[in-house]
Amino acid sequence: MEIALGFAIALAISLTGVGAGTMTTPLLILLLGVSPPTAVGTALAFGAIVKVASVPVYAMRRQVNLRVLGWLLAGGIPGVLAGSLALDRLKHGPHQGALYAVLGCLIAATAVYRLYRVFKPAPPRPDRDRVRLLPWFALPIGAEVGFSSAGAGALGSLLLLSMTPLSAVEVIGTDLCFGLGLAATGSIIQVGAGNYDSALLLKLVIGGLAGAFTGSMLAGRIAQKPLRVGLLVALIILGCRLALHA
Question: How do residues 46-69 score in pLDDT, each as one tens digit?
Answer without folding.
Answer: 888 877 776 777 778 787 888 889
